[in-house]
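Why should sequence recovery work at all? Because a backbone constrains its sequence more than one might expect. Tight turns favour small or flexible residues, buried strands favour hydrophobic ones, and helices have their own preferences. The token representation captures these environments compactly. In the example below, the structure is given first.
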């Protein structure tokens, strides 16, 4: 009979087989709040920047365009992570709160 080393074998009595795994998929509140704040402030900055460009606030259109570009830089990551959080909350396949990086 061949020697069998049971130290590395998997059996039914193995502790790993008996425990159940619970997926911790709770929403990260701080990260979602930051994403929503970026989305809101970015949207407001884009709208205000367009209004500044149309009305030539500051003497020319450059101030409004610059403000709109800054708003877009806030809006894009805010929209991206808010969308991930929304889809994870709704349970869409492939989306999880783990996809949102910690702050």
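From this structural description, the recovered sequence reads:
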């Amino acid at each position: 009979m061949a020697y069998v080393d049971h130290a590395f074998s998997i059996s039914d009595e193995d502790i790993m087989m008996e425990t159940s795994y619970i997926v911790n998929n709770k929403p990260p509140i701080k990260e979602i709040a930051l994403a929503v704040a970026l989305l809101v402030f970015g949207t407001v900055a884009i709208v205000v920047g367009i209004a500044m460009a149309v009305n030539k606030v500051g003497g020319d259109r450059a101030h409004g365009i610059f403000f709109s570009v800054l708003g877009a830089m806030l809006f894009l990551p805010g929209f991206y992570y808010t969308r991930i959080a929304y889809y994870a909350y709704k349970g869409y396949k492939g989306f999880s709160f783990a996809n949102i990086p910690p702050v």
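A few observations help interpret the result. The mean pLDDT is 86.
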